[in-house]
Amino acid sequence: MAIIRVAVDVPLPTLFDYTVDESVAVGQRVIVPFGRREMVGVVMECVATSEMEPERIKPVVRVLHDSAPLSAELLDLLRFCSDYYRYPVGQTVLSALPGRLRSGQTVVSRPVLMYRLTASGAALDMEIFPRRRVVQRRILTRLAEQPCNLAQLKSLSATAVAQLKALLNDGYVEPCEARPMCGDKAVGHVFDNAHRLTDEQQHAVDAVAQADGYACFLLHGITGSGKTEVYVHLMHHVLQRGGQALLLVPEINLTPQLENYFRSRFPDVNLISLHSGLAEGERLTNWQQAQAGAAQIVLGTRLAVFAELPRLALIIVDEEHDSSFKQQDGLRYSARDVAIFRASQCGVPIVLGSATPSLESYCNAQSGRYRMLKLTGRAQAEAKLPEVRCISINQTVMRHGISENLLREIGLRIARREQSLLFINRRGYAPVLMCGGCGWLSGCKHCAGKMVLHLKDQRLRCHHCGYQQRVPQHCPDCGNADLHPVGSGTQRVESVLQERFPQARILRVDRDSTRSKRAWSSMREQIHANEVDILVGTQMLAKGHDFPALTLVGVLNPDSALYSSDFRAAEKLFAQLVQVSGRAGRADKPGEVIIQTAFPDHPLFRALQRHDFEGWAESQLAERRLAGFPPFMYQAMLRAEGRRETEVYAYLNQARAAAIELRQPVEVLGVVPAALARRANHVRAQLLIQATTRKAMRAFLRAWQPVLDGLSAAKLRCALDIDPLEF
Ligand code: ADP
Ligand code: ZN
Ligand code: ZN
């Protein structure tokens, strides 16, 4: 009888001991009795003795042999995350797995990953194969070149799966094993080398390719400088040597597009994606392909940082500054930071790419901990950076939130058959209802937020807690019927524009209008086909899209971010405006950006006009240093929420007293309300800890955690957030 220590998905900081009478490997999944239930666990250690009395140790129910054991490397990474983010080890390990592996059902592993022509398929004469079976012809032609996986075939047509089935039934196509990939043997692949690299691009590629073991590079390239091309060449380099490349991207909406792009550059490479939008079965298959080493390129959102990659040779984090790399619940990890740890653990290079690096990364590059690689020019010589202009909203005629000057410019673009984009900073800028009589605002009765007006279905909705009601006819406070919207949401801007330009084709792109994946991709097609004159949208539109006919970007209300309580608000705004400005004038037409603001002389806008990220970053870093904020300080936030204010504050105050009691070199701040002090009838508050080094912070947290676990907080939701991004 051997004793194993097992990670189980329960909110307790320990592993659990069981006996097992067959041989098991570390990393294997097992079913164990837990309380009155049976649960799936992962074997973390095989040990000789247990601290428990032998008769109390229960035997495992079953060892699961249906999937390969997790690697020691991945388990180490997860242990590190559990310790660093102060999250129970069992929950950390299990949350990294695809859903199917977390459940006790046997997973049918699918070794068949590729399809190829049978002899009769190869003998088909395409001249006489029915013309109208368009998709089948496409699949056959593709497979005649080389075997393909399902994802590659899916990219040929929306009906590829059904048509593939027909071909399998007819005996023209058969499944086959994935292309064998062995050890570090170089494997040839087709590489579509589209461009001659610029000198700067070549320098960046060489620097990373020559890295021996771990090195972290910050690829700081202006929008349109060709960072993607650098990634492609680096992947090519890695694939030639038989390695796997991991590319992390922030936005799930961008993955299908990127997937197709990289697939077109590496037509016969097995590329898979991993993100939360995949169906469970597909996610498992893709994960297993990565684990088996069959997937050569793995493209994914933050969760992909936990993919098994036995031959990992390169990690790229695109748009590394993006806050969606940080998970905001459960294991509150930053995928960028975990990726850096993983790269150093595996001894491989990592590239962080951005036009507007986070101040954390920029600071590390300046200090020499990361290596800075710069792309200062646009890759296509004719593409110029857009001209940025500020319009002072105090000195111009405004039409329901849009200035006359901007409307005139939009009119000019419509006449020239060019596109305009109106960008709305979502934060604090959705329309709320106001009473002209007494100044009442449509506050949510369940939280501190304001209810947002949705014109289409005549409802007020709270975007924080989801509460909704019909738009009232009269002011609930004074009975006045003069209720009107203030602020400008996308819908309201849309209606102002429609009034001014009745002929114009206006497209609204926001969370509401792009809820379905298909909707968003058909919108993109419309934009590319120039079937749209004006785009109205939120940050969704700012990221990574290339719209050649777009020559004007109007920014409607950036000001709230300048005076936000969140010290990162200005950094985020700058990044967002650079991104959205980058949408204008990418092709042969010069672009223009017009910013409506009450503060046209603000240093942020000045820096934006000069396209001066460095200057802006330096001034921000100087401010942060003075104020004692990150990246010069490491932070941890204890958050608590509950129905009763007294309980929430009592808990945090006890936690605070205990923190001070520990007498460690950290700064314990006061207990304060959260930025959104009430949500869905819950009171929310927080306590911030700061330290000047990571080491001091980690030592403190290790000592503090057991104390926190001992405090009574039965009716509260509490969480520690390490390196928090939300305040
Ligand atoms: P970024 O990601 O840095 O914003 P992209 O990678 O999207 O920039 O590149 C911008 C455009 O420049 C793309 O259309 C790309 O095909 C093109 N491009 C990239 N590198 C080169 C090059 N070396 N020569 C010509 N065009 C290039
Ligand atoms: Zn009123
Ligand atoms: Zn609410």
Can you tell me about this structure?
- This protein has 727 residues and is α/β, with parallel strands linked by helices.
- It has five domains: 2-102, 3-Layer(aba) Sandwich (GIY-YIG endonuclease), CATH 3.40.1440.60; 113-177, no CATH class; 185-375, P-loop containing nucleotide triphosphate hydrolases (Rossmann fold), CATH 3.40.50.300; 387-430 and 487-622, Rossmann fold (3-Layer(aba) Sandwich), CATH 3.40.50; 634-722, 2-Layer Sandwich (Alpha-Beta Plaits), CATH 3.30.70.600.
- Helix content is 32%, strand content 24%.
- It contains 21 helices and 33 strands.
- The strands form eight sheets. Strands 12-13-11-14-15-10-16 form a seven-stranded parallel beta sheet, with helices on both faces.
- β3 (29-34) and β4 form a beta hairpin.
- α8 packs parallel to α9.
- The chain is globular and about 80 Å long.
- Mean pLDDT is 88; it is low at 180-186.
- One zinc ion binds next to loops.
